[in-house]
Amino acid sequence: MVEVDRVMIDDLGISLLQMMENAGRNLARFTMDSYISGAQAEQVVVLAGSGGNGGGGLVAARRLAGWDVPVSVHLSRPADQYRGVIAHQLQALVSTGVRVESAGLPPTRSEGSAVVLDCLIGYSLSGAPRGRVADLVRWADESGAPIVSLDVPSGVDSTSGEVYDPAVAARATLTLALPKSGLVAPQAANNVGDLYVADIGVPAQMYRTSFGLEAADLFASSDIVRVTVDR
Length: 231
Description:
This protein is an alpha/beta fold. It has one domain: 3-Layer(aba) Sandwich (Rossmann fold). 35% of the residues lie in helices and 16% in strands. The protein has 7 helices and 8 strands. It has helices at 2-11, 16-35, 52-66, 84-95, 131-142, 189-192, 204-211; strands spanning 44-48, 71-75, 99-101, 115-119, 147-150, 172-176, 194-198, 224-227. Strands 3-2-1-4-5-6-7-8 form an 8-stranded mixed β-sheet, with helices on both faces. α5 links the parallel β4 (115-119) and β5. α2 crosses α3 and α3 runs parallel beside α4 (84-95). The longest helix has 20 residues, at 16-35.
Protein backbone atom coordinates (compact mmCIF):
# COMPACT_ATOMS: atom_id res chain seq x y z
CA MET A 1 0.00 0.00 0.00
CA VAL A 2 2.94 2.34 0.53
CA GLU A 3 3.91 1.71 -3.08
CA VAL A 4 0.31 2.14 -4.27
CA ASP A 5 0.26 5.57 -2.66
CA ARG A 6 3.59 6.45 -4.25
CA VAL A 7 2.53 5.41 -7.74
CA MET A 8 -0.75 7.29 -7.41
CA ILE A 9 1.01 10.51 -6.41
CA ASP A 10 4.29 10.38 -8.34
CA ASP A 11 3.30 8.53 -11.52
CA LEU A 12 -0.39 9.28 -11.99
CA GLY A 13 -0.61 12.74 -10.44
CA ILE A 14 -3.52 11.77 -8.20
CA SER A 15 -2.87 13.72 -5.04
CA LEU A 16 -3.06 12.64 -1.42
CA LEU A 17 -5.77 15.28 -0.99
CA GLN A 18 -7.92 13.57 -3.62
CA MET A 19 -7.46 10.12 -2.08
CA MET A 20 -8.16 11.51 1.38
CA GLU A 21 -11.40 13.10 0.19
CA ASN A 22 -12.50 9.79 -1.30
CA ALA A 23 -11.64 7.90 1.91
CA GLY A 24 -13.45 10.36 4.15
CA ARG A 25 -16.52 10.57 1.94
CA ASN A 26 -16.82 6.78 1.92
CA LEU A 27 -16.38 6.62 5.69
CA ALA A 28 -19.09 9.24 6.17
CA ARG A 29 -21.43 7.41 3.77
CA PHE A 30 -20.80 4.06 5.47
CA THR A 31 -21.41 5.59 8.90
CA MET A 32 -24.58 7.33 7.75
CA ASP A 33 -26.03 4.23 6.13
CA SER A 34 -25.05 1.80 8.90
CA TYR A 35 -25.34 3.72 12.16
CA ILE A 36 -27.35 6.93 11.78
CA SER A 37 -31.13 6.67 11.84
CA GLY A 38 -33.77 9.34 11.48
CA ALA A 39 -33.82 13.04 12.22
CA GLN A 40 -32.70 12.60 15.83
CA ALA A 41 -29.19 11.50 14.93
CA GLU A 42 -26.96 10.74 17.87
CA GLN A 43 -23.50 12.18 18.08
CA VAL A 44 -20.60 10.77 16.09
CA VAL A 45 -17.25 10.98 17.89
CA VAL A 46 -14.26 11.12 15.54
CA LEU A 47 -10.80 10.28 16.90
CA ALA A 48 -8.31 11.73 14.43
CA GLY A 49 -4.56 11.17 14.31
CA SER A 50 -2.07 13.50 12.65
CA GLY A 51 -1.37 11.31 9.59
CA GLY A 52 -3.33 10.36 6.51
CA ASN A 53 -5.73 8.20 8.49
CA GLY A 54 -6.62 11.18 10.63
CA GLY A 55 -7.08 13.30 7.53
CA GLY A 56 -9.69 10.85 6.28
CA GLY A 57 -11.46 11.13 9.62
CA LEU A 58 -11.50 14.92 9.38
CA VAL A 59 -13.09 14.70 5.94
CA ALA A 60 -15.70 12.26 7.27
CA ALA A 61 -16.49 14.64 10.13
CA ARG A 62 -16.95 17.52 7.70
CA ARG A 63 -19.20 15.49 5.44
CA LEU A 64 -21.34 14.19 8.32
CA ALA A 65 -21.69 17.71 9.73
CA GLY A 66 -22.82 18.81 6.28
CA TRP A 67 -25.62 16.24 6.54
CA ASP A 68 -26.68 17.76 9.92
CA VAL A 69 -25.26 14.89 11.96
CA PRO A 70 -23.89 16.04 15.36
CA VAL A 71 -20.14 15.50 15.32
CA SER A 72 -17.28 16.10 17.73
CA VAL A 73 -13.63 15.58 16.83
CA HIS A 74 -10.82 14.70 19.22
CA LEU A 75 -7.27 15.10 17.94
CA SER A 76 -4.32 12.98 18.97
CA ARG A 77 -2.08 16.04 19.40
CA PRO A 78 -2.38 19.86 19.45
CA ALA A 79 -3.85 21.31 16.27
CA ASP A 80 -0.75 23.38 15.50
CA GLN A 81 1.24 20.15 15.13
CA TYR A 82 -0.85 18.99 12.17
CA ARG A 83 0.99 19.57 8.90
CA GLY A 84 0.47 19.67 5.15
CA VAL A 85 -2.67 18.17 3.70
CA ILE A 86 -3.89 17.07 7.13
CA ALA A 87 -3.63 20.64 8.42
CA HIS A 88 -5.57 21.74 5.35
CA GLN A 89 -8.35 19.28 6.17
CA LEU A 90 -8.38 20.40 9.79
CA GLN A 91 -8.77 24.04 8.81
CA ALA A 92 -11.59 23.16 6.42
CA LEU A 93 -13.34 21.30 9.22
CA VAL A 94 -12.88 24.08 11.77
CA SER A 95 -14.35 26.54 9.27
CA THR A 96 -17.63 24.60 9.34
CA GLY A 97 -17.99 25.15 13.10
CA VAL A 98 -17.47 21.53 14.20
CA ARG A 99 -16.15 21.25 17.75
CA VAL A 100 -12.52 20.10 17.78
CA GLU A 101 -10.68 19.15 20.98
CA SER A 102 -7.01 18.29 21.46
CA ALA A 103 -6.95 17.67 25.22
CA GLY A 104 -8.89 15.52 27.61
CA LEU A 105 -11.18 12.66 26.60
CA PRO A 106 -14.66 12.68 25.07
CA PRO A 107 -17.55 12.57 27.53
CA THR A 108 -18.53 9.09 28.67
CA ARG A 109 -21.67 8.00 26.87
CA SER A 110 -23.98 5.10 27.59
CA GLU A 111 -23.85 2.04 25.38
CA GLY A 112 -25.44 2.55 21.98
CA SER A 113 -25.69 6.34 22.27
CA ALA A 114 -22.88 7.22 19.84
CA VAL A 115 -20.75 5.98 17.00
CA VAL A 116 -16.99 6.28 17.34
CA LEU A 117 -14.86 6.63 14.22
CA ASP A 118 -11.34 5.37 14.88
CA CYS A 119 -9.05 7.33 12.55
CA LEU A 120 -5.97 7.42 14.78
CA ILE A 121 -3.39 5.15 13.10
CA GLY A 122 -3.41 3.55 9.65
CA TYR A 123 -0.96 1.11 8.11
CA SER A 124 2.00 3.11 9.46
CA LEU A 125 1.64 1.63 12.96
CA SER A 126 5.00 0.92 14.62
CA GLY A 127 4.55 -0.86 17.93
CA ALA A 128 1.86 -0.34 20.52
CA PRO A 129 -0.05 2.97 20.62
CA ARG A 130 1.43 5.36 23.16
CA GLY A 131 0.55 8.54 25.02
CA ARG A 132 -2.65 10.33 24.08
CA VAL A 133 -3.31 7.92 21.21
CA ALA A 134 -3.31 5.01 23.68
CA ASP A 135 -5.66 6.97 25.97
CA LEU A 136 -8.10 7.57 23.12
CA VAL A 137 -7.96 3.91 22.07
CA ARG A 138 -8.78 2.82 25.62
CA TRP A 139 -11.58 5.38 25.84
CA ALA A 140 -13.10 4.07 22.60
CA ASP A 141 -13.02 0.46 23.79
CA GLU A 142 -14.59 1.41 27.12
CA SER A 143 -17.23 3.72 25.65
CA GLY A 144 -19.75 0.98 24.91
CA ALA A 145 -20.40 2.56 21.52
CA PRO A 146 -19.96 0.81 18.18
CA ILE A 147 -16.58 1.64 16.66
CA VAL A 148 -15.82 1.93 12.96
CA SER A 149 -12.11 1.89 12.14
CA LEU A 150 -10.78 3.56 9.01
CA ASP A 151 -8.36 1.36 7.06
CA VAL A 152 -6.96 -0.53 10.10
CA PRO A 153 -8.08 -0.68 13.75
CA SER A 154 -5.59 1.38 15.74
CA GLY A 155 -3.22 -0.98 17.52
CA VAL A 156 -3.45 -3.76 14.91
CA ASP A 157 -0.51 -4.39 12.58
CA SER A 158 -1.86 -4.21 9.04
CA THR A 159 0.71 -6.68 7.67
CA SER A 160 1.00 -9.36 10.35
CA GLY A 161 -2.30 -8.97 12.19
CA GLU A 162 -0.48 -8.67 15.51
CA VAL A 163 -2.70 -7.06 18.11
CA TYR A 164 -0.91 -4.70 20.47
CA ASP A 165 -2.01 -3.37 23.85
CA PRO A 166 -4.07 -1.26 23.61
CA ALA A 167 -5.90 -1.90 20.36
CA VAL A 168 -9.30 -0.86 19.10
CA ALA A 169 -11.96 -3.57 19.03
CA ALA A 170 -14.02 -2.36 16.08
CA ARG A 171 -17.56 -3.31 15.16
CA ALA A 172 -16.52 -2.77 11.53
CA THR A 173 -13.38 -1.82 9.62
CA LEU A 174 -13.57 0.15 6.38
CA THR A 175 -10.22 -0.49 4.77
CA LEU A 176 -9.04 1.44 1.72
CA ALA A 177 -8.22 0.37 -1.84
CA LEU A 178 -7.45 -3.29 -1.03
CA PRO A 179 -7.70 -5.49 2.07
CA LYS A 180 -4.47 -5.68 4.07
CA SER A 181 -3.10 -9.08 4.97
CA GLY A 182 -3.23 -8.41 8.70
CA LEU A 183 -6.94 -7.72 8.59
CA VAL A 184 -7.73 -11.32 7.61
CA ALA A 185 -5.34 -12.88 10.15
CA PRO A 186 -7.21 -15.05 12.70
CA GLN A 187 -5.72 -13.24 15.70
CA ALA A 188 -7.13 -9.90 14.50
CA ALA A 189 -10.71 -11.08 13.94
CA ASN A 190 -12.13 -9.66 17.18
CA ASN A 191 -10.52 -6.26 16.53
CA VAL A 192 -11.41 -5.95 12.85
CA GLY A 193 -15.08 -6.91 13.15
CA ASP A 194 -16.98 -6.86 9.87
CA LEU A 195 -14.58 -6.02 7.05
CA TYR A 196 -15.37 -3.69 4.16
CA VAL A 197 -13.15 -2.18 1.48
CA ALA A 198 -13.69 1.28 -0.03
CA ASP A 199 -12.64 2.75 -3.35
CA ILE A 200 -10.26 5.72 -3.14
CA GLY A 201 -9.80 6.07 -6.89
CA VAL A 202 -6.94 3.66 -7.65
CA PRO A 203 -7.30 2.73 -11.36
CA ALA A 204 -7.69 -0.99 -12.01
CA GLN A 205 -5.10 -0.82 -14.79
CA MET A 206 -2.51 0.43 -12.29
CA TYR A 207 -2.97 -2.71 -10.22
CA ARG A 208 -2.37 -4.79 -13.35
CA THR A 209 0.62 -2.93 -14.77
CA SER A 210 2.42 -2.06 -11.53
CA PHE A 211 1.56 -5.01 -9.27
CA GLY A 212 0.23 -7.85 -11.43
CA LEU A 213 -3.11 -7.83 -9.60
CA GLU A 214 -6.57 -8.16 -11.10
CA ALA A 215 -9.05 -5.83 -9.41
CA ALA A 216 -10.97 -4.54 -12.41
CA ASP A 217 -14.47 -5.29 -11.13
CA LEU A 218 -13.93 -4.76 -7.41
CA PHE A 219 -15.90 -1.50 -7.24
CA ALA A 220 -17.96 -1.86 -10.40
CA SER A 221 -21.27 -1.92 -8.50
CA SER A 222 -20.46 0.08 -5.36
CA ASP A 223 -17.74 2.24 -3.82
CA ILE A 224 -17.95 0.08 -0.66
CA VAL A 225 -17.75 -3.71 -0.79
CA ARG A 226 -18.19 -6.25 2.01
CA VAL A 227 -15.27 -8.68 2.36
CA THR A 228 -16.03 -12.25 3.39
CA VAL A 229 -13.15 -13.66 5.40
CA ASP A 230 -12.61 -17.40 5.68
CA ARG A 231 -10.61 -17.75 8.90
